[in-house]
Give the backbone structure.
Amino acid sequence: MTPDEETIARCLRKASLLGAGEPMQVSPLTGGVSGDVFRVDLASGPICVKRALPRLRVAAEWLAPVTRIHNEAAWLRFAAAVVPAHVPAVLAEDMEEHLFAMTFYEPAAYPGWKPMLRDGQVDADFAASVGAIAARIHRASAVSADAPGVFATRDLFLALRIEPYLLYTATVQPRVAGQLERLAAGLSEASIALMHGDLSPKNILCGPDGPIFLDAETACFGDPAFDLAFCLNHLLLKAMWRPAHLAAYGAAFRRLSAAYLAGVDWEPAARIDGRTAQLLSAFLLARIDGKSPVEYITAEGDKAFVRGFALKLLEAGDVSLLDIVTAWEREVRAR
């Protein structure tokens, strides 16, 4: 066996998921930026094993503690108590090897939302369900006595989200550095609800019973507006990738945000709408000039368009989500 296979086998035996002498087959899965992901076929059926990497697979140096994998397992357990049909079950966790095993979803039955959006399969009802489920998790955590302590992971969130998306971008775009630094400070201080931390289409599967949320390594108790903005950002950026589907992306944006805001009861919906709009403006810029630029926007003209739009929003300040998507559609069409 390879070193990876030996490690996985040892951990699965320790968790009583693999019997002595029982065969298994390990197949690496592609697409992981922050960790290695494997399909492991056991006699009882396939499972998924994920292990954190100390250095993320991006061009800029981006280091993060491998203990974040346990943060993800904790988020999955919390979410499973709220929306069990919409997250994988944690089957085993190894604190020494920094990996865990979870439910495996067959790609044919559970395609990724990102490739579906790319191919123009934009289901506004599905987008609405993403928003509604995210709000349910946030709502449950906002009244949880335990979540603030379990997910007191601000250092991790700083390393994986605030620094690469906001503070690094501030050094590249001094014109709006003050706005970005204020947003970073707000996220650092917020203590409202449990954030997933990476709620984007690449981490959502389209199952027969609705969305499946994955990859919550950066979960932290903070500002839930982060998750909403992070996800909505991708629905805007997809129009640079597939402009023919601009109207469908806009409809999905509206349905997702409306369904989410309808589920907000821990604060006035207008208040989180405003914070989300500010963060969304920053994320548009960060996915062009931050440490993790979106991989499908490569033409300099497209980058300049997104950059210019984001800079105008950040300088405008007080805007709503509806203001943003309406302006985005108008300006993309005008191109």
Residues 269-289 form the longest helix (21 residues).
